[in-house]
Amino acid sequence: MTECKQRTFPVVLVVGVLLAGIQSAGCAPDISDTDFYSRHPDPVDAQPTGPVLLEKKAASGVALAVLRNDQVHAGYNELILRAATEGTDEPIVGVSFDVVASTVIDGATYVSPIIDDASPSDAAGEVTLGILFLQPRGSGQSWRIDVSTTIDGAPISFPFDIVVRDSLTVQPFVGAGGQSFFAAWIEPIAPKTGEGPLELAVYRDTGSAFDPVENASIDLYPYMDMGGGDGHSTPFTKPTHTSVGRYAGTINFIMSGGWDLTAYLTIGAAPADTVVFKGFTVH
Amino acid sequence: MRNASRHTTFLLLILALGTTVSQAQSLVRGMVHDSETGYPVPLANVVVAGLEGGTATANDGSFRLPVPAGRHTVIISAIGYERVEKPVDTRNGDVSLHINLVPTILLHQEVLVEGAATKLSDPSADNSLQTTEDLMKQIPGVDFIERANFAWEPVIRGMSGGQVGLVIDGVKVIGACVDKMDPTSAYVEVENLKKLELTKGGFDLSKSSQIGGTVNLVTEKPSFDKPFSMSAETGFESASMQRRVRTVVNGSRGNTSVRASLSYRKADDFMPGNGVRITNSGFAKNNTKFDVTQRLGAGHRLSASVLADNAWGVGYPVLLMDATLAKARIYSLSHSWLRQSGAGLLQSSETRLYTNTVDHWMDDYARDVDQRTVMRSMNMPMYGYTRTSGVISETAMRHGKHQMSVTLDAYQTKSFGDMWMFSTLPNIPDMYLLNLGDILVQNAAVSAEYRVPVNARLKARGSVRLDFSHRDVQNETMQSILEGRWGVADLNRNYVVPGISGALEYALGSATGIRLSVADVARLPTHVESYGHYIYNYTDGYFYSGNPDIRPERSLQVELGFERTTEVYGVRASAFANRISNYILGSSDAGLIADAGTYRFRVFDNISAATLIGFEVSGAMQLVPAVDLRGAISYTRGQNLEFDEPLPLIPPLSTKLAVAYTGDRFAAEIESRAAMPQNRVARRAADEDGTDGYFVLNLRGSYTFNDRVAFTAGVSNVFNVYYHEHLSFGNLPALGRNVFGTLSVSI
Ligand SMILES: [Cu+2]
Fold this sequence. Notes:
Chain A is mainly beta. Chain A has one helix spanning about 1-25, and strands at about 50-60, 60-70, 75-85, 100-105, 110, 115, 125-135, 140-150, 155-165, 170-175, 180-185, 195-205, 210, 215-225, 230, 235-245, 245-255, 255-265, 270-280.
């Protein structure tokens, strides 16, 4: 009995402290499913989920569709040609296309200087095209794409009319002699974090044609404006001349967000204007 | 000195009494042996408690000590051994003793501090240490990098981070916070800390790849002593209004025993010495641990352990953000075996399989981000985790006087860290930065240690360690970024890192020993040093990037130790010198500097060399019975030989002096701590600034009402001095006057 009584006080005390402890400890907040991102508005995702049909034409039993992955804009675009048998929709495999893109400005017909054609068509009857649309006179430009091919010995051609919207990926600039030039962003089409190719192209506007500039040198300054007066650059290698007006280097975006790319251009020995590809998003 | 002369006087008096006064005399005689080798221990001190005088053992380990007839306690002590107390009764004549002394691991230079495990039931055992950090701070040469009023990161002799190996029962737990808000020491609360094994310098090769020291937090395991025991403690601290409860329950039945603990701490904003509360400096934390042990017979035991630690709402007033939640889950399964009888090569073994997860969330939603100077006008929540699994297995062997232990230490860690940046300004899109992109580190090491008593006075130890490390980046985006940045085809790297150390210990007499230790060791780069991506460093305000081609730091070090322990005083001193090559530091990352706003960038790099020298002296002395004087002084000097400037994060010369009274029920202590100014700072490497010296006084006392209830109270920083430690981030001030109390109960 005495043994028992002696123990009562400490037992009560210990149990009391234990209960108080458990009570006050509670549980750590469960934030394992906290999505910090949800505290902020959803970003506008500019990426469509898949190719969107732009236009479809049929001739001589062949249906040819033009599809886009992105809004068709001034600058370099990726378009898809899809060839199928009219009616059955059977893909036409192994066919090659000749593609010419042109626009008429002030009576002069300008031809697109870059058409990257991945012919022949694949198992889905598709060919991916890379086309550069330049806009010498501002927005709302309309382009004509003439696609011609030979199927079963019969030549067929399809004209498509496409309206391109404004884009920051084409920047006009003025050279030392007052000549007008274009700098265009070719690659990457969808900038991503990490190391990747960076390709720019430079053309002179002769007044009736786009003349590839083969003697430009380009220095870069990529910059991320983080607001509040702060920002930073990212590693890159300077683009160097590869082929008709095209210059390839690399860029390594260290983080996603909004970036600017300034290109310092020199044509021959004469420093020209700088152009800024401003406010593109790196995913 | 006064004590020594008094000692002599008493000795003479006793000798005189012994010859002139007729008194019943008996003889205590005996033999003293080394418990491990069986060799006789010469020059061991033999005294009788409460009596002056004594003797020392002869070369064959024998002693004879005349005592008055009666009940006595014989105390046998020798340098390098644990002290033994033996009750004897000489009323019926002479007594013969056979003493086996257990060698201490002094040869490893380990400072063993018994933790506060005993404290819950016995507060007089060691004043009123509230946290594991408090306990470590008692050891000269140990300092802390303080980032908040929470979870400090240990610094041993000016080395920290990847230079120091901190493990829990040998288990590696890798921090998930890239800002190091989650040092591993935070996961072991004092009620679970049985023993703190700390080695200063790179001499213990069994725990991890390190050059600066190891800390092993040995946790409490279930006890078979009693069928049921329970203890609880509640405490309070005024400076941060911190309240605390801890409870431990232990039960055993037959060959099974279980132990469970729960603790909770909550602190509000703290008050430094200037009386202005530091806003955003509180925290809350809970910790639970559950262990079960099964005795399997023949010396085999199987144990399982689960530890869960949560800290939330942890304010980091001098950093840009606070820890929303820091979560650690540590699981282990172990088998141990201890030879019960008979001779054999194998003496004992312990194998532990473990896995642990650490998750860390932080954000700055409690801050006015538009007002700050760095990273202005953006919220930047961060998340990080580590997943670690491994095995550590140690086998102890003996052949005659030769002893050897072999340790296998293998683990892998996967770590991830990222950061969103949401601008509060219009037109700034959301930004996302990957800090650690699925970094995989796989380490395997084998270490062996050999110990031998060369003769009765000289002992030798040698150890080797070989680390194999494989590491890679598994996230594709991170691979692309880092491969592009370093111009390499792939990022996986392998290291083979050997280390060797040795020590000699020589007994000059029964109470005095000297020791010489040397080591040529290396430590592996951390995963952050290899592959971190733009990690903000609060020490210098730079963003740091890892370097896949970074090399391990190598260190050549030597230490000279001296120890003398008598019945009246004890002193321990050591001096060390350390030359580090391939010292890892940030060098400027020129690529991103131009025109880049206020941001500054650095990359981890091996600078040519650095040196660290220093010393620690600590001592204790009995002033009068039950009253001790204790003191310690420590100093470290670090020099960056490449930049020709001091190394960063080196603590100043500091001292501790205390007078302690220990009675049966009541114990009290007055302690002073002082640090000299530190003006040897790394301006170029880390933009460090100097720190003023300080002097603070602490008082504490404890009273035990009976075996079950005890009370501890005290005041630290009695004079409410406003100061900060040199190693505190952003010159965060230390706590001002802090009145604390604890009440503990046990059954
Ligand atoms: Cu953190």
